Amino acid sequence: MTSVEDADSLVIPCLQIDPNVELKEVPTTGEEYLLKVMKERQKCVVVTKCNKDISKFAKNQSRFVEEPECTKSAPDALKPTLEWQNIQVADFSEVRMYISRMRAKKSEHKIQEIDIEENHIVSWKQFFEESSPTLSCVFGLKQAYFDNGLEMLTNSLNNIKPGETIGPKTGQWIYAFLACLTLPLLSDTISILRNLARRCAEIRSHIKAEDENAIAAVAPLNVFICLISRYFRQIDLADK
């Protein structure tokens, strides 16, 4: 009889085969098939090694993605508290759940068909300026376009002068795109999100805590840094 300790062992076979089962060239039962598979597996080496010279393929490759250095930290007066960040994540989660429910019912609603060139900067700029980030509009975008759109929005932040912040409409579009991203994220999407968070941190670093509108100016920046780091799990970019 198997003891409790033995039953919890990871080395106990998942499938037991009767010792009387014979090995056949053409299995006719489930146990005969398992026995044949096990015998064939025993003939294989434990570790498979590549016997080809891959140096010529890897010459220009790197195991690591080089990221820009971290931007200097914002003054404590402009950093969000952990409690505030938790509230933003909770609210964002509710928004995403609502969007998920609406997406499941989108056949019942009128959806705008959005036709846009994926990598055409002028087309994206015109789209963001002339359209509003409503669900009917966002649902009209192909999911494959979201990375392009987020990247265009991130690049547009390069035009923000020191001391200024993200405009309301740009902020709405960024939030809408973040809310509509599907999980799990692709590696390219993660890279774009990290660039966005770093850009927001850089913009925030130029805002002085003593400025009259400093708190309002850093609000959207703090939101995006928070969501990317806390909700999308890029924890190393989070405000501590």
TrEMBL record:
Pfam family, one: SIP1
Domain of life the protein comes from: Eukaryota
Subcellular location: Cytoplasm
Record bears the keyword Cytoplasm: yes
InterPro entries: GEMIN2, Gemin2/Brr1
Cellular-component GO terms for this entry: SMN complex; spliceosomal complex
Gene3D superfamilies: 1.20.58.1070
UniProt key word Metal-binding: no
Any one GO biological process: spliceosomal snRNP assembly
Keywords, alphabetical: Cytoplasm, mRNA processing, mRNA splicing
Principal subcellular localization: cytoplasm
Role of this protein: The SMN complex catalyzes the assembly of small nuclear ribonucleoproteins (snRNPs), the building blocks of the spliceosome, and thereby plays an important role in the splicing of cellular pre-mRNAs.
Quaternary structure annotation from Swiss-Prot or TrEMBL: Part of the core SMN complex.
Family membership noted in the UniProt record: Belongs to the gemin-2 family.
Name of the protein: Gem-associated protein 2
